[in-house]
Amino acid sequence: MRTTIVAPSLLAADFSATGAALRMVETSGAPWIHLDVMDGRFVPNLSFGAKMVADLRKHSKLFFDAHLMTEVPESLVDGFIEAGADAITFHIEACVHAHRLIDRIHAAGRKAGISIVPSTPVSVLSELLRYVDMVLVMTVNPGFGGQKLIPRCVQKVAELRDFRDREGLDFQIAVDGGVNTATAPGIVTAGADIVVMGSAFFEATDRAALVRQISALSRPDSSPAV
Ligand code: DX5
Ligand code: ZN
């Protein structure tokens, strides 16, 4: 059994104190920070851009997991590579030439992730799964933190895990949206390697205990080493 990676999402932090929020993630023991980038077009909200990532990068060695919820992600990836993102995930719904973009991210030495919104089936990804490092399954309609997980989306995690086992692939499976202590066990049992936590993380009174609790959730042995 392997431990689960917790990726707190900065979106749920108080933006007037982002440095303090970064330190909260660091001291919690979480190895990743999830950075939600919204353009007001792909999703009905705006968040922050590459400058935020570059500024935070100077103060942290956490794994920076950028989630681009944007149209035309091709026009933005270079900025996030330069800013120091370790992984860049974009949406298949926003990109026709996803294979090319994955190549570009890899050429820069970064991990490439692909994400699907709740209305997109896993089957759409079948030609891409051998090229990506991570699949981010959205379990809410992206755009806002603090929403309730859509239970049906969790089945996609099991589908992805089965596909990965069958094809002998090694991408990681991440889940984003409505993850908390109540929903995480089912998500991890389904096969998630990484869970993103926004509001549940920043609202927790003991974040280190929360991270310990979620990290200790065991997932199937077939998951790739991280
Ligand atoms: C939603 C974002 C999520 C969000 C998760 O559009 O992609 O990463 O921050 O927040 P919670 O955990 O509050 O659902
Ligand atoms: Zn996200």
Layout of SSEs?
Layout: E1 5-8, H1 18-28, E2 32-38, H2 50-57, E3 63-69, H3 77-83, E4 87-91, H4 98-107, E5 111-116, E6 134-138, H5 155-167, E7 172-176, H6 184-190, E8 194-197, H7 199-203, H8 207-215
Parallel strand pairs: 1-8, 2-3, 3-4, 4-5, 5-6, 6-7, 7-8
Bound molecules: D-xylitol-5-phosphate and zinc ion (ZN).
Average pLDDT confidence is 96
Query: Strand portion, in percent?
Result: 15-25%
CATH superfamily descriptor: Aldolase class I
SSE topology string: EHEHEHEHEEHEHEHH
Going by CATH, the architecture would be: Alpha-Beta Barrel
Counting H and I runs of at least 4 residues, what is the number of helices? Answer: 8
Structural class: alpha/beta
Main sheet, how many strands, which sense, barrel? Answer: 8 strands, parallel
User: In one word, what is the shape?
Assistant: globular
Helix content: 25-40%
Radius of gyration: 16 Å
**Order of the strands making up the biggest sheet:** 1-8-7-6-5-4-3-2
| Distinct ligands | D-xylitol-5-phosphate, zinc ion
Low-pLDDT runs of 5+ residues are: none
- Kindly provide the name of the CATH class: Alpha Beta
Question: What is the number of domains?
Answer: 1
What separation lies between the terminal Cα atoms?
A: 12 Å
CATH topology annotation: TIM Barrel
Tally of DSSP β-strands:
8
